[in-house]
Amino acid sequence: MKSVKALAPAIAVCVLTVLGGCGAEAVRRYSAVGAAENWPSHGGGADESGFSRLRSINTRTVGKLGLEYALDLPGEISLEATPLAVDGVLYFTGSYSAVYAVDAASGELLWKHDPEVWRHNPRKMRFTFPVNRGAAYENGRIFSATLDGRLLALNAKTGKLLWTAQTVDLDSFHTITGAPRTLNGKVIIGNGGGDFGARGYVTAYDAATGRQLWRFYTVPGRPEENRGDPAMERAAATWSGEYWKTGTGGTVWNGITFDPELNRVYIGTGNAGPYDPELRSPGGGDNLYLASIVALDANTGKYVWHYQVNPREAWDYKATANMISATLQIDGKARKVLMQAPTNGFFYVIDRETGKLISAEKTGKVTWAERIDLQTGRPVEAKNIRYETGETVIWPGNQGGHNWQDMAFSPKSGLVYIPYMQAAVRLRKGQTLAPGEVSYGGLTISLVKEDPLDGKGALIAWDPVAQKERWRAPHDDMWNGGALATAGDLVFQGGADGYFSAYNAATGERLWRFYAGQGIIAPPISYSAGGKQYVSVLVGFGGTAGIISNLMDAGWRFDAPRRLLTFSLDGTASLPPTPARHTPLKPLDDPTLKLDTTDVTAGQLLYGMNCAVCHGLALRSAGAPGPDLRESQIALDREALWSVLHDGALRPSGMPQFQELSRQQVSQIQAYIRAGARQALGKGEIATPDVAPGRM
Q1: For FRET with 489, which of 74, 179, 439, 512 sits at 20 to 30 Å CA-CA?
Q2: CATH number (domain holding residue 219)
Q3: What is the pTM for the complete model shown?
Q4: pLDDT at 39 over 80
């Protein structure tokens, strides 16, 4: 890679390759990209570019940026949402799908709508950790989706519920963590659950009434369900065996982009379930439309084209990252493109008119494939990546080189800004567990450190035309926030280290930073209220950090405040006190409790299957959605633990209920927790291996 200093003069120009010129024409060309005074949709504009055309906060003035206000959000945990800004009001969602409306200039809470997932369908709380990535807006209505699978329409001024649509089956493994999108009087939503084999689909509803308009399935169903549907018949031909019984996956849990120019919707589909293709589709087949970008007609939901980034997906790779539509000058021609950096580590530029691949290159360490063949569009895979010999280690891991944290595109610099991370994954056939592994679908899986940069991240500036990295700002942690690019030639990103930073979009130089007192994983936005430019971001580390806390431990306490922070030029507010990072663990112990090795071992398995997703791998919460149970007073008392786990005493606070657990099993979970606490205190007579079987 060339030095940043050497590249800066070329990048700082108006980027002739993208804009086709400078001056007034260049300004006109990017005036339709992203957002301006309002930030009315998830990615700013329909293009999902994450670009703000506001420029009062720029490379010259950013040094004067200060905190305008901080709004504490009691009860929130992992905050992943991108706020919306519409006519002086911010709208965003919390961990358990609550919707907030806040005065954008003052930070005053205007209203809050709590959908009470714990009351409607508490079983869904067990399938994934509590997160939500945001809301949608159109015509005076706010649309949000709940973890238990409802789509809600709210009055934007009052928060009053206008209608509800049950968009997933009550008894399925589907949940919703993603943000809806609105398009010409419709609202579209996908769902999650692919890890459990749930069949993926997206659904469009009438925005005024909630009436279902169309639904598109991303993978085939039973033969009788596929018959007469060309898209499903085509997909079914790429599956074998009784796949509809073993599980499919392909859920659309994040990336959705509307293309008003072509009147299309692009959906990014997820991983397989089970991961091992021989379990779900023995004998071969690409397994469409797993790990794909699929273009649909926005009016009818009918299939237009697809591009599959990972044929016969086998690694929990997914194409669910955000997709940015743009017009780029490539080989002297204006090309309507779609850009995505999915989890597999490549950056793809696709012709959005035809679905044909234009280019694809590695953004970091990638060993599962040598390259992408531009003639066929298929990866040239490395040997043994499908664990043919029983085991393989590949980069990137199943968390990806880039995950759901949004990348951003600046038409001024011509660069895409990618939240990048690096880790390897070890995949083994079979169910016998070793330290640090989880089990799923016939595989044992562990993220591992086999390279000095494993477990670290970066903000990468990527040239989508040249398919080259232009600069890189390294991070010591791998689980960082999404990006915002602005016409002020800045890129904003929050980090797992608790700092919110602004970088020079052309050079990567960090020009400003603010200590937020908690890790940041959400993308920021910029908007204007009363003629003044603001930048806002939600602060709340967590999400996936629990199940792989061995690599994502950023040192944050569960009880640290979660907040909305808003910044402006000459802002003078002070951040309220926050707990220090890396506060020492304070394990609790009851020395009168006698532990049995058999109970500890059994409790370890039960913890891994039921608790690790939210409370952390091997009891190490470290920024996870749940507290560290080694410090829990409840876990000291067997009856209190029974009340919480079996009876659901803390269900209204977001703690799932496990009615199927017996008293013996609850006692075994307690034994494992107590053994872990004693080990942390240095007096553990029974070891607790770093193993967490269960769900990823």
Answers
A1: 179
A2: 2.40.10.480
A3: 0.93
A4: yes
